[in-house]
Amino acid sequence: MSPPKTEAPYVHGSAPKTAILFCNLGTPDAPTPAALRRYLAQFLSDPRVVEIPRLIWMFILHGIILRVRPAKSAQKYAKVWTSEGSPLKVWTDKQAKLLQGLLGERGHRVTVRYAMRYGAPAIGATLDALRAEGATRVLVLPAYPQYSGATTASVVDDVARWALQTRHLPELRFINHYHDDAAYIAALATNVRQHWAEHGRPDRLVMSFHGMPARTLALGDPYHCECLKTGRLLAEQLGLTQQDYQVTFQSRFGKAKWLEPYTEPTLKKIAAEGVKHVAVICPGFSADCLETLEEIAIEARNTFLQAGGQRFDYIPCLNDAPAGMRALADLTERHLQGWPTQEAPDAAALKGQLARAQALGAKH
Ligand SMILES: C=CC1=C(C)c2cc3[nH]c(cc4nc(cc5[nH]c(cc1n2)c(C)c5CCC(=O)O)C(CCC(=O)O)=C4C)c(C)c3C=C
Ligand SMILES: [Fe+2]
Ligand SMILES: [Fe+2]
Predict the structure, then answer these.
(1) 150 close to ligand 1 (CB < 6 Angstrom)
(2) pTM for this structure?
(3) Any known ligand binding at 179?
(4) Which residues are registered as beta bridge partners of 85?
(5) d(CA 247, CA 261)
(6) How far apart are CA 169 and CA 327, in angstroms?
(7) Residue 254, SS3?
């Protein structure tokens, strides 16, 4: 552990200031092999993401994966890259600004910033900036509705790493998950209904979540259960029966067994069974990204159609949908309780305290 870094001197009488740190996964800076190499090296070196003995893994990662995958992944990113950059970053930035606006309209005086677990803006650098701006309370909101060790816990690790090197810590709070939050489920249902009103109701709704190694379930990770619960609650909201929907897991990485059923083989199977029209939604992704726009909306679509399916609809993530943003604002508002952000009694009281202290010639 390195010693605390030099920080701005303590300012007497400063009022509490609250910040919300909205943390997403991160994404490469450009759709190029070099940028992908940097991004994947950081991402896949995280022991929360790949849980195999370090020495063996570093050998495989640097000896094989980082020689092959960057070029392949760069080609995929190039298919979804926008003029403003990676979709994940564009949406995360927009969501942070919208959340700031909504909380402001509700009378909360808070600063909302986003940070990325891998790549930029880094969590530690963003926390440093917030402290320099005077933040004394930070609520950390990982952009993952379902908790997993690989995602949510890894954000907490990064905040903890920053805390280990920081002298004057802000008060810290963390939101672990919101997989069964009523407003989140209702926002997903609104998205689905709107899509059906415009594009027609499918024979089957596939809810595709990012996968995880199957062994993480036996090791106590709640991710699988939380995905299934989100799926059940969404189906309930939509009035679906068990025949109308399916929960699947996508984005398998490596050779090990991951959570099943896998998304693409399931789409192939149901097309062969005669399902003609399928709609796919990815409720575990708070914003569209490579895994939804390329793997599902392009790759999985081709798989389904080639297997005999006739119609494939991809239902976008919540992104900047008003109901989804309101759900995030409600969630953060609940977690802000006890941190007075709506009025400034502390500021007024502190000013009075300071004036009285100064009159006495005291500093404290
Ligand atoms: C939504 C939750 C996510 C979980 C759980 C998750 C676990 C997980 N991911 C990998 C490996 C990769 N994931 C990649 C991209 C990616 N993953 C998520 C989310 C979760 N991952 C998102 C939102 C994205 C997209 C990022 C973007 O820039 O758009 C990638 C990189 C892309 C590629 O090269 O394929 C890898 C690799 C593992 C191993 C894992 C659990 C152990
Ligand atoms: Fe992933
Ligand atoms: Fe379970």
Answers:
(1) yes
(2) 0.94
(3) no
(4) 82
(5) 8
(6) 29
(7) coil
Positive or negative: CA dihedral 201, 204, 205, 208:
negative
pLDDT for 206-219, tens place per residue? 999 999 999 999 99
Cα atoms in the 13 Å half-sphere on the side-chain side of 41 = 11
CA proximity to 48, closest of 129, 133, 157, 139: 157
Helix, strand, coil percent values for the chain (each to nearest 5): 50, 15, 35
- Say whether 182-315 and 18-178+322-347 share the same fold: yes
Ligand 1 atom with the smallest distance to the CA of 51 is 42
210 known member of a binding site: yes
Q: Taking the domain 18-178+322-347, which CATH number applies?
A: 3.40.50.1400
CATH architecture of 182-315: 3-Layer(aba) Sandwich (3.40)
Residue 348, pLDDT > 70, answer no
Alpha helices in the chain (DSSP H): 33-44, 54-60, 66-80, 87-105, 123-132, 154-164, 182-199, 215-218, 223-238, 263-272, 290-293, 301-306, 322-335, 345-359
Interatomic CA distance for residues 114 and 20, integer angstroms: 8
DSSP label at residue 314: E
Furthest CA-CA distance within the chain: 85
Distance CA 6, CA 45 (A): 28
pLDDT tens-digit map of 170-185: 999 999 999 999 999 9
- Our answer on whether the CB atom of 88 is closer than 6 Å to any ligand 1 atom is yes
Q: Is the pLDDT of residue 74 over 60?
A: yes
What distances in angstroms separate CA 126 from CA 4, 135, 149, 151, one per listed residue? 17, 11, 22, 18
Q: Residue 225 C-alpha to ligand 3 middle, in angstroms?
A: 4
Partner residues linked to 21 by β-bridges:
113, 140
Q: What is the pLDDT of residues 297-338, one digit of tens each?
A: 999 999 999 999 999 999 999 999 999 999 999 999 999 999
> Hey, where are the domains in the chain?
18-178+322-347, 182-315
Instruction: State the complex-level ipTM.
Output: 0.95
Q: If you average pLDDT over residues 58-80, what whole number do you get?
A: 98
